[in-house]
Amino acid sequence: METVLSGIRSTGNLHIGNYLGALRNFVRMQHDYRCFFFIADLHSLTTHPHPDDFHGNVRRILAQYLAAGIDPEASTLYVQSDVPEITELYLLLNMIAYTGELERTTTFKDKIRLQPGNINAGLLTYPVLMAADILIHRSHKVPVGKDQEQHLELTRVFARRFNNLYQCEVFPEPVAFNFGEELIKVPGLDGSGKMGKSEGNGIYLVEDPKSIRKKVMSAVTDSGPVPGQPMSEPISNLFTILSLVAAPETVRFFEEQYAAGTIRYGDLKKQLSEDIIGFLTPIRERYLSIESDSDYLRKVAALGKDKARESARATLDLVRSAVGFKSF
Ligand code: TYM
User: Fold this and answer.
1) How far is the CA of 229 from the centre of ligand 1 (A)?
2) How far is CA 229 from CA 203, 225, 258, in A?
3) Residue 261, Cβ neighbours under 10 Å: how many?
């Protein structure tokens, strides 16, 4: 059975982009693969969250994973920092990762621009920790959005380099995938770029209907279709989101109106809000009942930790032996 692993940083709340890029398709496939889902709390330290917020963030994402439909019995759902084997593998992989290739990653260059006052070494080695997350379970497939493609490429480089250097076949070369579909980039509501946690341009999985309506109604648009001109990015983004949450007839209806030049963006936005609300309501309702259930969350985290450590331990034994560690 192939191993699938999906990770989400413990920053803020999950948004529709996280869900559609890395979760939805896998929720349905939990019995067909050996699935791991985890909360990347160590990765979130690169942006220095306040200690008072740290645990609450992890807890919230755990509850949101469950609300999205992850079954903690069928899959392994865990918190990254509960599995120290990952940090050991991270250290070992750092010895075969070159600073030049890390400095060239787009995400590192973006971060330099975003947080010039905090360019810590953890940011530089972020892809190495991510490779450790993936390789610790010898994963074959990694559900990610388009933004993580380069990290997956580096993971394959490290896996190959390790196997070559130590003349072994410990690691498979994992691929990014989204179940036969293209990797997706869910756009934000601000007219350009992707929906992101730090950009403040997204709809959260557990957002209440009133706030969803407000955000969608104030999404960026243009001054109307111009015959012969291609659709502008803000409008095309609204159509992309609509196509992800609405029935095909609805999308077709608005596309026809757009083509005829009779579309009213207010109507498009109203429809989009209602479809997003319909799409998210079951998740939000599950979340509200799960997040207050501390006993349940504690049990899920403990079960996940045990299952994840068992798998991680087995890989680390192979890795340590390949590198040449021996007990006296
Ligand atoms: P993060 O927390 O930013 O996002 C989690 C997942 O959601 C996907 N995603 C999107 N997909 C489509 N459209 C969007 N607008 C969008 N925004 C986010 C991301 O591609 C990702 O799959 N470095 C990772 C976390 C991580 C990880 C891992 C992922 C750490 N270790 C190992 C996979 C495997 C991150 O910051 O994702």
Assistant:
1) 34
2) 29, 8, 12
3) 10
Chain-centre distance of CA 239, in angstroms?
22
**Domains of the chain in sequence order:** 3-184+294-323 (3.40.50.620), 209-288 (1.10.240.10)
Q: Kindly report whether the global pTM for this prediction surpasses the value 0.85.
A: yes
Angle at the Cα of 267 from the Cα atoms of 264 and 269, rounded to 5 degrees:
110
309: Cβ–Cβ under 8 A, 6 or more apart, which residues?
82, 83, 85
Q: Please give all residues whose beta carbon lies within 6 A of any atom in ligand 1, as ranges.
A: 5-9, 17-18, 20-22, 40, 43, 130, 133-134, 142, 144-145, 147-148, 184-186, 194-196
Looking only at the bridges linking them, the beta strands covering 3-9 and 175-177 are: unpaired
Q: What is the pLDDT along the chain (328 residues), one digit of tens a residue?
A: 899 999 999 988 899 999 988 888 888 889 999 999 999 999 999 999 899 999 999 999 999 999 999 999 999 999 999 999 999 999 999 999 999 999 999 999 999 998 999 999 999 999 999 999 999 999 999 998 888 999 999 999 999 999 999 999 999 999 998 766 678 899 999 988 899 877 779 999 999 999 999 999 999 999 999 988 999 999 999 999 999 999 999 999 999 999 999 999 999 999 999 999 999 999 999 999 999 999 999 999 999 999 999 999 999 999 999 999 999 9
Q: What residues are labeled active site?
A: 111, 194, 197
Q: Going by CA atoms, what residue is nearest to atom 6 of ligand 1?
A: 18
Tokens at 232, concatenated = 């502008």
Q: Which of 60, 144, 177 to mutate to test the pocket of ligand 1 (most atoms within 8 A of CB)?
A: 144
Residue environment code for 37-48, b if the CB has 16+ CB neighbours within 10 A, otherwise e: bbbbbbbbbbbe
CB 220 within 8 A of CB 238: no
Inter-residue contact 35 to 26 (CB < 8 Å): yes
* Ligand 1 atom with the shortest distance to the CA of 148: 20
Output the CA 322–ligand 1 centroid distance in Å. 30
